[in-house]
Design goal:
InterPro entries: DNA/RNA_pol_sf, DNA_pol_palm_dom_sf. The chain is built from three helices and eleven strands, in the order ββαβββββααββββ. By secondary structure, the chain is mainly beta. The protein has a three-stranded antiparallel sheet. The N and C termini lie far apart (53 Å). 8% of the residues are buried. The chain has a domain of 108 residues. The protein is globular and about 70 Å long.
Length: 201
């Protein structure tokens, strides 16, 4: 591996006479695309994200508004088909409130026809939403951060499983800051609206 020009070695650690640990990476030009990468599917998802009624979109998901009689993207169970993530709440269930604090950071309130009550879903990248953390980071917290521009929230995880540089598996406490994070857009003052960076209003 050390003589392979497509490999960039970072560090070499001798464990014993027969074993070494080599930290390495491939430079961008040495990376071969995966066979599972499908540009057509990515294009299809991106095209659906261009709906004028879209509230949120990411690499693999789209959340949009819908009134009776309006066009809806087709759903199905096959590769390339969209799936209805609200279906599990019962037929006819609807999202009644939605809030997003940036990429991979959103929550919504659903009226479930199955339970005849409101249920909440919260998705936050980088924070494990176990029972304890969900008491701190939830729909109401995110809504307050966006609408009221509330202070940052701190999330304490008691046992975060991680590895150190010597690949020992450790369990240690971790504290994270939870905040609204717009990486590709800027938020307008005194508003919940955002615009792309460089766009003049």
């Amino acid at each position: 591996m050390l003589t392979d020009p497509s490999v960039e070695a970072h560090s070499l650690t001798a464990v014993d006479d027969d074993t070494v640990i080599l930290n390495w990476d491939r430079p961008d030009e040495g990376i071969v695309p995966l066979k599972t990468v499908n540009v057509a599917l990515a294009t299809y998802t991106t095209a659906n994200a261009r709906l004028e009624r879209v509230l949120y979109f990411d690499t693999d998901s789209i959340i949009f508004t819908q009134k009776p009689g309006e066009w809806v993207p087709a759903t199905g169970d096959f590769l390339g088909d969209m799936t209805d993530e609200i279906e599990c709440y019962g037929p006819g269930s609807k999202i009644v409130e939605f809030v997003s604090g940036g990429p991979k950071n959103y929550a919504f309130k659903v009226f479930s026809t199955k339970s005849k009550s409101y249920e909440y879903t919260c998705k936050v990248k980088g924070i494990t939403l176990n029972f304890k953390n969900a008491q701190v980071v939830n729909f109401e917290t995110l809504k307050s951060l966006v609408l009221d521009q509330a202070e940052d929230t701190y999330v304490q995880t008691d046992r975060r499983i991680c590895r150190n540089s010597m690949y020992d598996v450790l369990s240690r406490p971790e504290k994270k800051v939870y905040r609204v994070n717009y990486t590709k857009r800027r938020r307008l003052e005194d508003s919940v609206d955002t615009l792309p960076y460089g766009y003049r209003s």
